[in-house]
Design goal:
The chain is α/β, with parallel strands linked by helices and about 475 residues long. The chain is built from 19 helices and 19 strands. The chain has helices at about 1-30, 35-50, 55-60, 75-90, 100-105, 110-120, 135-145, 165-175, 195-205, 250-255, 270-290, 320-330, 350-360, 375-385, 385-390, 425-430, 440-455, 465, 470-485, and strands spanning about 125-130, 150-155, 180-185, 210, 230-235, 240-245, 260, 265-270, 305-315, 335-340, 345, 365-370, 395-400, 405, 410, 415-420, 425, 435-440, 460. The protein folds into three domains: about 1-60; about 75-90 and about 125-305, Endonuclease Chain A (Endonuclease, Chain A); about 320-485, 2-Layer Sandwich (Endonuclease, Chain A). The chain has a 15-stranded mixed β-sheet with strand order 4-3-2-5-6-8-1-9-18-16-15-10-12-13-19, sandwiched between helices. Helix content is about 45%, strand content about 20%.
Length: about 475
């Protein structure tokens, strides 16, 4: 009994020693991963400041999958063909102006970057329509679905069991019964509330439904931190949609207590649709192991007189942080202005440097973020970056006419990016994302005018006034900033 009592008395110290050794071991692993220093310090602080919970938090959310890649897209025939085409364009681009203006051609370094880091082939036979908000986007999407003859491919982060979601479901069921091939990928965390019954009504009608990385217990798995945030719709291989809107009522009706939903989407007809189809194909293969091939799915890339577009994806399936690198290069290449709309502003250090350097160098850098956010922690995290950006001359605006969810960058009236990636750690380093990079003065002009219209509905943030905000707010911002690389 005395021996047992001595062991029992020594247990607390044994637990403490074991915990200390575990924390040291994990901290060494984090350091050896050579990840972003901010992330490294943040995770070590979490391990130290949150006994036991910090270890659990790291195991579920902190492990770095990008360097080993969650899944490989290599070996798929269409991707190999795409790589060969992009290598050919890389060889020819220095001597080939693709029948574009000198102003557009000035962005050739950005074009080269995207050819290299994500096989983002340049297509110049595109028709593009900028769609503002749900009022313009959903009618265009539903009309295109109704006109489908061969196939409909959807890949979305959020689909909800509400008016918009159910209208989409009934339309897909109708088209499947007409003999149209319908394939639908939904993200298991983003669309967590969809029931088996709701999904089964589609599969029973012939819609091929698959879930992206199923998560049985969202709070108890590392997979929750690597989600498919892409929003892709491809119809008959030649018409596609990409942008910020998911299928839920709030994207049309707004958010209670905040107001109307402000968003931006693109309709693309041409080679850009083929590029989006290739991304869908790779993701569909991942979830279903079905390989799509043939010209009914993949229209040949052809030269034309339309808009010049590169479709860029990034995520744990990519060799590089492609969209983040594109954002950095676009901001750094600016000679006149950079206009950015993003619902969340928690950028990695390199993009912060690019924004501040451009502003200090005399470039007109403006950023619109929500005045009221749908995510409290993200709002505090966003606010933590505002002071240093203002000090460098970046102009920050709080949107007041609802919730701005647009993910838009316009540079110099020649380059535009519209897609799913926010200007934050999660989008640029963790999630599966997709953006359309457009080199066209007309599209840049439309997006610039929309930006200036949104700016009129926003309050400019004045540095002197901002620095007088309550100390408790600054404390919340500091803690949110520490957590922002992880959440």
């Amino acid at each position: 009994m005395a021996i047992l009592f001595d062991i029992w008395k020594s247990m607390p110290s044994l637990v403490t020693i074991l915990y200390f050794l575990t924390v040291v071991f994990i901290a060494i692993l984090i350091i050896l991963e050579n990840r972003n220093p901010v992330k490294t310090i943040s995770w070590i602080l979490i391990l130290v400041l949150l006994p036991f919970a910090g270890i659990v938090f790291y195991l579920f959310f902190g492990q770095e999958y990008r360097k080993t890649k969650m899944y490989s897209r290599k070996g798929l025939r269409n991707l190999e063909k795409l790589r060969n085409l992009t290598l050919e364009q890389l060889d020819n681009l220095p001597d080939n102006h693709l029948r574009i203006s000198d102003r557009i051609y000035s962005k050739k370094r950005l074009m080269n970057l995207l050819l290299s880091n994500s096989n983002a082939i340049l297509t110049n036979n595109n028709e593009i329509k900028v769609l503002r908000n749900g009022e313009e986007t959903f009618p265009e999407i539903f009309s295109a679905i109704e006109q489908a003859k061969h196939h409909i491919h959807l890949e979305y982060y959020i689909v909800e069991d509400d008016k918009i979601g159910n209208y989409l479901r009934e339309l897909l069921i109708q088209k499947a019964r007409e003999g149209v091939e319908v394939r639908f990928i939904y993200d298991d965390v983003g669309s967590w509330e969809l029931t088996r019954k709701w999904l089964r009504t589609m599969s029973d009608a012939g819609v091929k439904v698959d879930c992206f990385m199923r998560v049985r217990y969202p709070m108890l798995t590392s997979k929750v931190n690597y989600r498919n945030h892409r929003k892709i719709l491809v119809i008959d291989g030649n018409t596609a949609f990409v942008g910020g809107l998911n299928f839920a009522d709030r994207y049309q009706d707004g958010v209670p207590g905040i107001g109307p939903w402000r968003d931006t989407h693109l309709k693309i007809i041409g080679g850009g649709a083929t590029a989006l189809q290739i991304i869908f194909m790779a993701d569909w293969y991942f979830v279903s192991k079905e390989i799509l091939k043939g010209e009914k799915y993949f229209k040949p890339f052809e030269s034309g007189e339309g808009k010049l577009v590169q479709i860029t994806s990034s995520g744990p399936d990519s060799d590089w942080e492609s969209i983040g690198q594109a954002y950095f290069a676009a901001i750094a290449s600016a000679t006149e202005y950079v206009y950015i709309s993003s619902p969340y502003l928690m950028p990695p250090a390199d993009i912060i440097t690019a924004l501040k350097t451009s502003a200090l160098g005399g470039i007109d850098v403006r950023i619109i973020v929500p005045g009221l956010s749908d995510a409290v922690s993200a709002k505090w995290g966003t606010n933590s970056y505002i002071e240093e950006l203002l000090e460098a001359g970046v102009k920050i605006y709080f949107y007041k006419a609802g919730f701005i969810h647009s993910k838009v960058i316009v540079v110099d009236g020649t380059f535009s990016s519209v897609g799913t990636a926010n200007l934050d750690f999660r989008s640029l380093e963790t999630n599966f994302e997709v953006n359309a990079m457009v080199y066209d003065e007309e599209i840049a002009g439309i997006l610039t005018r929309q930006f200036l219209d949104d700016q009129e509905k926003s309050d400019v943030v004045i540095l002197d006034e901002w620095m007088k905000r309550p100390r408790i707010n600054k404390i919340k911002e500091s803690f949110a900033r520490i957590l922002s690389p992880m959440l």
